[in-house]
Write a structure and sequence with these properties.
Layout lengths: L1 H23 L9 E4 L4 E4 L1 H19 L1
Antiparallel strand pairs: 1-2
Length: 66
């Protein structure tokens, strides 16, 4: 369990360092992400981005466990 927590921590640090590059690549603003903007309100639900990230993580974990 400790090994997985260390790996998760390292992955979060790497993701945090790469976040500016990921935003420039368009991740988080994909077609299909829901954005509702009103006068004093903004709702953002990145459904397609979440699906894409989930697929990539699932593929990586499948390759590791294979």
């Amino acid at each position: 369990m400790a090994r997985w927590l260390i790996i998760l921590g390292i992955a979060l640090v790497v993701l945090g360092l790469l976040w500016p590059l990921l935003q420039k690549s368009g991740l988080g603003r994909l077609p299909g992400d829901i954005v509702i903007e009103r006068e004093n309100f903004r709702f953002y639900f990145p459904i397609v981005t979440s699906i894409m990230v989930s697929l990539v993580i699932s593929l990586i974990l499948w390759l590791i466990n294979r």
